């Protein structure tokens, strides 16, 4: 029998071994790590909402009103008014008919895709899609085709191929993200919407890193481009800019009702705490408020300072091989900056990188000094 210690030794030898780091402070622009205070460029807390006083107050008040847990799955007795209000508010925020929430973004994609697509269907996905989209597509049993990152020509030829093979009952789905999580670049969503419409396909877009960051009132890239309601499945997470946790999917009422009946990660999982659901609704409200606009303005000024060409606060610094990437991250850490090294399998082999993320919680000084250090 293969021993787990052999696998660990193998990972270590290839520079791929990972381990957990425990923070000795709350999440924030500065954190305590291994006895050292460091400026933190690793979180997805783009607006600093994990520590926002209004959300902390909303969370504790909701605990007083609803208790700490939900006690049952959504279809049994776990659905309370905060869940319903959250789903109505996220659907309205995204201009869709309906929405369903899940315990995480991962559970959203990995559970909903196989609930709606099966072996007679075709799924065409961008090469850089997040693991949860890939796992959902694989679990569906649909025939899959991958197109090179943002390659519209190849997407079109895959769509032609699928249209030719599909039966009258088959569904054809295109899967992509709006902001790519490890590169921080954008998908050409307007063009993808045209392509999927002209081939009678469905489109699923993951806005995990766009909610709260891009678009009018932080509604995301699809809203910025005016194609929100032309996207059949618009998903995202409350665990990034919204500062909390949980995933959502916006779609037509009929698709959402199918998911309530079929998505195993929804049906067989205890409902998120109602206090959490209540606080997420407050976070969506804050994101859409003038204060949210101000936080986005601060965030954008940090991005302009460090990487003016970047459309998002995710700024990859690609090194290539694992060892030099780890060495660079260690140097920065010693100098007081925590910037995580990202390696295979999160990114393709040979593209190991530092992934710098900026937050409205950073000060101009924080960003200035990192810039000085990166040279
Ligand atoms: C983080 C992320 C998810 C998963 O969301 P969680 O709520 O953290 O499970 C899904 N898709 C993308 C693109 C992500 O970056």
Quick one: biggest sheet? 7 strands, mixed
Number of strands: 13
Helix content range of the residues, please?
40-55%
Q: Can you write the helix and strand succession as a string?
A: HEEHHHEHEHEHEHEHEEHHHHEHEEEH
Principal-axis shape equals globular
Order of strands side by side in the largest beta sheet?
3-9-8-7-6-4-5
Q: Structural class, judged by helices and strands? A: alpha/beta
Give a written overview of the molecule.
There is one protein chain. The strands form three sheets. This protein has a seven-stranded mixed sheet, with helices on both faces. A three-stranded mixed sheet has the order 1-2-11. A three-stranded antiparallel sheet has the order 10-13-12, with helices on one face. The protein has helices at residues 4-13, 53-66, 74-78, 81-93, 105-116, 131-140, 152-165, 189-198, 221-224, 253-262, 264-267, 274-287, 290-306, 322-334, 364-374, and strands at residues 30-33, 36-40, 98-102, 122-126, 143-147, 172-177, 202-206, 233-237, 247-251, 314-320, 337-338, 341-342, 352-357. The longest helix is centred in the C-terminal third of the chain and has 17 residues, at 290-306. With 375 residues, it is of the alpha/beta class. Helix content is 43%, strand content 17%. Strand 7, helix 9 and strand 8 (233-237) form a beta-alpha-beta unit. Helix 2 packs antiparallel against helix 12 and helix 5 (105-116) runs parallel beside helix 6. The termini are far apart. The protein has 15 helices and 13 strands.
């Amino acid at each position: 029998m293969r021993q787990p210690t052999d696998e660990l030794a193998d990972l270590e030898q290839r520079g791929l071994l990972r381990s957990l780091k425990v923070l000795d402070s709350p999440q924030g622009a500065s954190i305590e790590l291994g006895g050292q205070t460091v400026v933190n460029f690793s979180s997805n807390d783009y607006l600093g909402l994990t520590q926002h006083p209004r959300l902390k107050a909303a969370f504790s008040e909701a605990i007083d009103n609803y208790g700490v847990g939900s006690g049952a799955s959504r279809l049994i007795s776990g659905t309370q008014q905060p869940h319903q209000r959250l789903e109505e508010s996220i659907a309205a925020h995204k201009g869709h008919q309906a929405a369903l929430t899940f315990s995480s973004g991962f559970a959203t994609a990995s559970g909903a895709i196989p609930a709606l697509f099966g072996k007679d269907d075709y799924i065409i996905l961008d090469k850089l899609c997040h693991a949860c989209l890939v796992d959902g597509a694989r679990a569906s049993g649909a025939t899959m085709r991958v197109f090179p990152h943002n390659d519209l020509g190849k997407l079109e030829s895959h769509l032609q191929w699928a249209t030719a093979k599909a039966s009258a009952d088959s569904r054809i789905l295109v899967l992509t993200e709006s902001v790519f999580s490890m590169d921080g670049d954008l998908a050409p969503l307007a063009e993808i919407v045209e392509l999927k419409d002209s081939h009678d396909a469905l489109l699923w877009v993951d806005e995990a890193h766009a909610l709260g960051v891009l678009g009018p009132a932080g509604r995301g890239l699809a809203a910025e481009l005016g194609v929100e309601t032309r996207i059949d499945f618009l998903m995202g997470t409350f665990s990034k800019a919204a500062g909390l946790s949980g995933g959502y999917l916006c779609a037509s009422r009929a698709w959402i009702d199918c998911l309530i009946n079929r998505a195993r990660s929804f049906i067989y999982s205890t409902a998120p705490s109602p206090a959490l659901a209540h606080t997420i609704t407050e976070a969506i409200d804050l994101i859409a408020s003038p204060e949210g606009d101000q936080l986005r303005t601060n965030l954008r000024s940090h991005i302009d300072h460090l990487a003016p060409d970047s459309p998002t606060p995710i700024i990859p610094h690609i090194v290539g091989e694992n060892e030099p990437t780890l060495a660079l991250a260690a140097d920065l850490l010693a100098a007081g900056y925590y910037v995580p090294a990202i390696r295979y399998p999160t990114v393709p082999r040979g593209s190991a990188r530092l992934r710098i993320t900026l937050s409205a919680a950073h000060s101009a000084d924080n960003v200035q000094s990192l810039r000085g250090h990166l040279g």
